[in-house]
Specification:
- It is built from nine helices and ten strands.
- It has 321 residues and is of the alpha+beta class.
- It has two domains: 162 residues, Ribosomal Protein S5, domain 2 (2-Layer Sandwich), CATH 3.30.230.10; 129 residues, GHMP kinase, C-terminal domain (Alpha-Beta Plaits, 2-Layer Sandwich), CATH 3.30.70.
- The strands form two sheets. Strands 1, 2, 3, 4, 5 and 6 form a six-stranded mixed β-sheet that branches.
- The longest helix is centred in the middle third of the chain and has 24 residues.
- The two termini are 20 Å apart.
- Bound molecules: (R)-mevalonate.
- (R)-mevalonate binds next to helix 4 and helix 5.
Length: 321
């Protein structure tokens, strides 16, 4: 039996989303496929494509994640999960663990003939993802489950999502791996500490963020790519103020700027991992991809991400929601 989970890219609001601010996330047409096989002594058999400098430091945590999801279905050590598909594992930011968690939950649901809705899949997957990321907001597992450009917000214990654009023409996005492995559990904890130590500054920064968020929604609705580019830069300077930037990311952003990018920002965990670079159009994204590849960066061309998104085309779409 098979299950799928999609990767994602956060347009704005990583980290602040953990503290109940709304964020905007795009699910990618790149997915992790999970096949269920009889238990082979380990829960995870990992055959996913990886970026060249991949460090398998999360292997044990993936085992814990799979065990938690298996427990939620009451199957203990009956099955192992083979991870494959076209979603590459990067040095952070693409939602690989959430995609795997959703794929495992869906594969088990199919295997056990449990007709679970999207919300139940997301909840089970999130309980697994907590083993890897500590206190995730649920944005990654939501985007791994539901396709489109989504507004996501966590309010107390309620996770809210709303699809802003189901079949919007593609955003010309390039994802560049900064080659610095990032750790979501650590960066989320660091931001929690920053908030505790700087409560007045935090409030000011959240007001700054809320203005960016509102403008990003406006830019997406009007499909104003130039405005969106500037907003990505503004979101990046906010990440910088939250101590989440690093020289690896800034180097990628410099190259992007020198090649005419409309804007760029770290996406997801931050302090490394992926940099989202916005181009003028698909051709510009392809040109920038060549430049980055030539100087040794691993890139993911995500420019077709939203155009190819439709529930009909999703092999993993739930029957119920
Ligand atoms: C990770 O993709 C996004 C973070 O905001 C963590 C989370 O929301 O779970 C850094």
């Amino acid at each position: 039996m098979v299950g799928f989970g999609s990767g994602k890219v956060i347009l704005c609001g990583e980290h602040v989303v953990v503290h109940s601010e709304p964020a905007i996330v795009v699910s990618l047409p790149l997915r992790t496929r999970v096949d269920v096989i009889p238990f082979s002594g380990t829960f995870i058999v990992d055959k996913r494509p990886k970026h060249p400098n991949y460090v398998p430091y999360k292997q044990n945590l993936y085992e814990e994640m799979a065990a938690t999801i298996a427990d939620a279905f009451g199957v203990g050590r009956l099955y192992s999960f083979v991870l494959s598909g076209d979603l590459p594992v990067t040095s952070g930011g693409i939602g690989a663990s959430a995609a795997a968690a959703v794929g495992i939950a869906r594969a088990l649901a199919a295997m056990l003939k449990r007709h679970l809705g999207q919300r139940e899949i997301m909840e089970i997957a999130l309980s697994g993802e907590r083993k890897i990321h500590g206190n995730p907001s649920g944005i990654d597992t939501t985007a791994a489950t539901i396709e489109g450009i989504l507004l996501f917000q966590k309010e107390e214990y309620v996770l809210f999502h709303h699809r802003i654009a189901p079949a919007q023409p593609a955003l010309p996005m390039l994802l560049v791996d900064s080659q610095k492995t990032t750790n979501t559990k650590e960066t989320v904890a660091a931001v929690g500490e920053f908030k505790k130590q700087n409560s007045l500054l935090w409030q000011t920064l959240m007001m700054e963020y809320q203005a960016i968020f509102a403008a990003v929604i406006g830019a997406i609705k009007k499909r104003d790519i130039e405005a969106l580019g500037k907003l990505l830069d503004q979101n990046q300077s906010l990440l910088d103020k939250l101590t989440l930037s690093c020289c690896h990311v800034e180097r990628v952003r410099d190259i992007a700027r020198n090649n005419g990018a409309l804007g760029s920002k770290n996406t997801g965990s931050s302090r490394g991992g992926l940099v989202l670079v916005l181009g003028r159009d698909a051709q510009h994204v392809a040109d920038m991809a060549q430049v980055f590849t030539r100087v040794g960066y691993f890139v993911v061309d995500a420019s077709s991400s939203s155009s190819s998104l439709s529930t009909d085309k999703n092999p993993a779409a739930d029957q119920a929601s």
